[in-house]
Design goal:
Structural class: mainly alpha
Strand content: under 5%
Number of strands: 0
Low-confidence stretches: 6-18
Bound molecules: zinc ion
Number of domains: 2
Distance between the termini: 38 Å
Helix content: 55-70%
Radius of gyration: 22 Å
Number of helices: 5
Order of helices and strands: HHHHH
Mean pLDDT: 83
């Protein structure tokens, strides 16, 4: 027996149509992506400031002064922060791609096989460019 609630849920989650995500779901996903982009951008800027600090600190320290033993620590920290910056840039690029797909109408379609990506996956991983099958394979 179907309750009105089930019917409502079935209307909300179209399981068999391609890009037919309801507009309010698209809006919710878009604002989630935009908010995530702002956080990612803030992280990137913080990492870039940290890197600039490390660079100016190491440039201010002559190689032969008493801080020389710290040289390797600075190099290590610099590598760590550089890795964070690369990660943040990749993350931002993924978010931008997802937002681009949202705006050109290809969002929610697997970029590999062209099948719709189920809403559950988009909610869990809004940046996902591929369906579960393609991501697994
Ligand atoms: Zn696919």
């Amino acid at each position: 027996m179907r309750t009105p609630d089930c019917e409502f849920l079935n209307l909300m989650i179209p399981r068999d149509s391609a890009t037919a995500l309801p507009a309010f779901q698209m809006d919710a996903l878009e604002s989630g992506l935009v908010a995530e982009r702002e956080r990612a951008l803030a992280r990137l800027e913080a990492s870039e400031r940290t890197l600039a600090d490390i660079v100016s600190y190491s440039e201010g320290s002559p190689p032969d002064d008493e801080h020389d033993p710290e040289g390797s620590t600075i190099a290590y920290e610099r590598a760590q922060v550089s890795a964070l910056i690369t990660q943040s840039r990749d993350h931002l690029a993924g978010l931008d791609q997802a937002l681009g797909r949202l705006r050109n109408g290809t969002y929610g379609v697997c970029e590999r096989c062209g099948n719709p990506i189920v809403l559950e996956r988009l909610l869990a991983r809004p940046m996902a460019p591929t369906c579960v099958d393609c991501a697994a394979g």
